[in-house]
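Module 6 notes. Inverse folding takes a fixed backbone as the condition and produces residue identities as the prediction. Think of it as a translation problem where the source language is geometry and the target language is the twenty amino acids. Below is one complete input and output pair. Work through it position by position during the lab.
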């Protein structure tokens, strides 16, 4: 039997915290929450301190005026660490960071790392309602070591001109394209969304750290009511990620050899098997050849499995990034999974129910997967991340058993799905003429009334347009009541934005 290398990375400790304080003055600060989850991760590993940590890596912490959260936490915990790291933002970076740290550990550049996230958006929202501007002060620290911190423009000019800049607007556009591509009626699709996410709520109801630990029926998720209003068709409020949460999480990652030296019991070890990350060539939603596909997600997830020397059938547990149903369905499609897969699609309950703390969800999902795998030795788990508007992707594979590959890797492999898919951006143009719709959404206000229609379509020359529909309530109600994908109309370039009038 081949000996298992001592430099293989293992997650040995996890910590999570959900704070539901209802008064601004009583709410813990980001630093206090990071301290709590850090000590919880140490205790979870069976350690009485974090003295062995030589690297702290933090995801961005919104509304904390601190340029180097890792350095602030190191000082607060009185740890003399060599590396203080800060990542960029995006729902994929937690998984990307674990993949990167794992390779740093194998290369000997890091001994033991503490990966942390905290976001206190609920406290900020409470402050806004009370007329208090909540921004936590920072300290005087050196600049952090930046990892995967590159930023790029996420929204096309024509999308921005229509004030289509938020996830709650883009994902419904993608979702309506998914429905049309699947050939479902609006009613069939509505019922499908309920069936897809009702099991997520059941998992959240069992998650002690879930923001909404409530099991809902499919009908309760998809029926528009005063407390579950339509946000952007076809998503009701309960189908949207919830970002106004106060949540934090931490992972303690080291090597097998260091874990043994520290006396961490082997039943705490969860091995890193490999991973991958990628981003869409057609970065803007409106420029994608097929609005219901994410070719680079296929590249990412297929590569992660190949790097781990696995097939998807060998995965026992999944946590797909689930900000909106569209993201989950695209992941299911690229891996060939069905809505009734008995393995389930989440171990947390997902972002709409467990909570989506800004960029930080994946640190919590990795913590939850670690606990899930410890409870079922021999099982293998897959965790994914998704940034922006199904624009950036990440995946990682974990198990209590050592990996098959002598040296796991994180990266794209040959013979990728994009070689067989349309990936080049479609030009977005401004002109008048006839157009056919590829997708659309109708935005609703807080009373549930429709107020804004947005369409994405193609001109006869194949270029794309993004346009506004007429905005009167009666028109919008009728517009979203019928299938619009594939229908035609007149596009006019006669102002700051294009307008679309259906036939």
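Target side of the pair, the amino acids:
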């Amino acid at each position: 039997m081949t000996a298992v290398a001592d430099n293989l990375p293992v997650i040995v400790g996890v910590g999570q915290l959900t704070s539901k304080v209802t008064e601004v003055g009583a709410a813990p600060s980001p630093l206090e929450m990071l301290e709590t989850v850090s000590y919880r991760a140490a205790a979870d590993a069976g350690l009485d301190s974090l003295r062995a940590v030589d690297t702290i890596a933090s995801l961005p912490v919104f509304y904390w005026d601190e340029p180097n959260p890792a350095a602030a936490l190191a000082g607060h915990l009185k740890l003399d660490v060599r590396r203080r790291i800060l990542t960029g933002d995006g729902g994929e970076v937690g998984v990307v960071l674990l993949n990167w740290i794992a390779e740093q550990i194998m290369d000997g550049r890091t001994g033991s790392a503490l990966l942390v996230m905290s976001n206190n958006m609920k406290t900020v929202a409470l402050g806004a309602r009370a007329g208090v501007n909540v921004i936590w002060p920072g300290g005087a620290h050196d600049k952090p070591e930046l990892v995967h911190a590159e930023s790029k423009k996420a929204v096309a000019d024509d999308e921005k001109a229509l004030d289509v800049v938020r996830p709650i607007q883009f994902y419904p556009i993608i979702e309506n394209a998914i429905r049309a591509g699947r050939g479902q009626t609006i009613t069939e699709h509505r019922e499908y969304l309920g069936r897809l996410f009702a099991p997520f709520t059941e998992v959240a109801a069992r998650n002690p750290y879930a923001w909404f630990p409530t099991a809902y029926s499919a009908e309760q998720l998809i029926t528009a009511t005063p407390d579950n209003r339509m946000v952007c068709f076809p998503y009701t409020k309960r189908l949207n990620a919830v970002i106004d949460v106060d949540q934090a999480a931490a992972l303690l990652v080291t090597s097998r050899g260091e874990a043994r030296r520290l006396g961490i019991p082997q039943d705490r070890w969860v091995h890193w098997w490999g991973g991958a990350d990628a981003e869409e060539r057609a970065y803007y939603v409106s420029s994608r050849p097929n609005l219901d596909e994410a070719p680079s997600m296929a590249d990412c997830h297929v590569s992660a499995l190949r790097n781990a020397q696995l097939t998807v059938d060998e995965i026992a547990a999944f946590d797909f990034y689930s900000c909106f149903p569209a993201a989950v369905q695209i992941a299911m499609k690229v891996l060939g999974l069905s809505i009734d897969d008995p393995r389930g699609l989440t171990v947390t309950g997902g972002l709409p129910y467990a909570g989506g703390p800004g960029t930080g969800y994946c640190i919590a999902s990795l913590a939850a997967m670690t606990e899930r795998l410890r409870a079922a030795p021999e099982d293998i788990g897959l965790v994914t991340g998704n940034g922006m508007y199904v624009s950036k992707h990440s995946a990682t594979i974990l198990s209590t058993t050592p990996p098959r590959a002598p040296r796991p890797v994180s990266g794209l492999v040959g013979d990728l799905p994009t070689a067989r898919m349309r990936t080049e951006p479609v030009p977005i143009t401004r002109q008048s003429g006839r157009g056919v719709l590829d997708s659309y959404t109708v935005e609703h206000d807080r009373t549930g009334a429709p107020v804004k229609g947005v369409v994405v379509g193609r001109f006869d020359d194949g270029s794309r347009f993004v346009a506004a529909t007429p905005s009167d309530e009666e028109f919008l109600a009728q517009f979203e009541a019928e299938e619009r994908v594939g229908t035609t109309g007149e596009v006019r370039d006669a102002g700051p934005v294009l307008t679309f009038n259906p036939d």
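Reference fact for the lab report: The radius of gyration is 23 Å.
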